[in-house]
Amino acid sequence: MTDHLTRCAWLGDNPLMMAYHDEEWGVPVHDDRLHFEHLVLDGFQAGLSWAIILRKRDGFRKAFSGFDPEKLARYNRRSVERLLADPGIVRNRQKIEAAIANAKTFLRLQDEMGSFDEFIWQFVGGEPKQNRWRMLKQLPARTKESDAMSKALKQRGFRFVGSTICYAYMQAAGLVNDHIAKCFRHRELGGRA
Predict the structure, then answer these.
(1) Residue 76 burial class via C-beta count within 10 angstroms: exposed 0-12, middle 13-18, buried 19 and up
(2) Theoretical Cys-Cys bridge with 65: which of 71, 132, 167, 184, CB 3.0 to 4.6 Å?
(3) pLDDT by residue (tens digit) across 6-40?
(4) In the predicted model, is pLDDT for residue 1 greater than 70?
C-alpha cells in the first residue's frame, strides 16, 4: 500500500479486495439490480471468504445474466445443470437454486412495494447507520436490524438470508457504515472522526 491511507484491516494486501474496499464496500445502494447482486453474492459467500466471491464476481455476472432478476427468474432445471458445470462461479446446487427462487421472490416484492430499495432501507430508517468502530474485532456478525431483515425476507420466501448474511449485505450495500473510524472511507461515507 504505497498511498499511506489507513484502511480496514480485513482486506489485507489483496489488490482486488483493496479496490473493492476503496470503491464499493459501504457505498449506499439505491439500484434494485445492484441490491439483488449483493444479496445473491452474500448468500454465495456463506461458508466462504469474500475474496473467493470477489474473484469470481465477473463469472457470476456472466452466468447469472448480469443479475437481472427477470432473466434469472426464468432459469430452469437445464440452467441449473449448466451453472453447476461453470467453473467461473461457486458450484453449489442449493445456492444456485436459491438464487433463482430469490429472483422470483424479488420480483414479487418489487411489484408489491414499488421497489426493493424502498423495502430494504426501512430496516435502517431510510439512511445509513453510521457506526464508529475502532477495531475490526468490534464489528458484529449480526444486529437487531439484520435479524429483522432476515425474518422479513424469509417470511416473503427468500432463501440464504440468515441474519449474518443480511448483515454482510447491509455492510456491502451501505445500509451501515462499518469502516473502522480511522479508515479513510469512514469519513467519506458520512462517518465522523
Answers:
(1) exposed
(2) 71
(3) 999 898 889 999 999 999 999 999 999 999 999 99
(4) no
Is residue 152 helix, strand or coil? helix
Quick: pLDDT tens for 101-124. Answer: 999 999 999 999 999 999 999 999
Closest CA to 13 of 26, 25, 3: 3
What's 124's DSSP letter? G
How far apart CA 41 and CA 47 sit, in angstroms, is 12
Fold classified for 30-188:
Endonuclease III; domain 1 (1.10.340)
Q: What is the pTM of this model?
A: 0.95
What span, in angstroms and rounded, lies between the C-alpha atoms of 157 and 63? 23
Cα–Cα separations (whole angstroms), residue 89 to 2, 12, 45, 64, 85 = 32, 23, 11, 10, 9
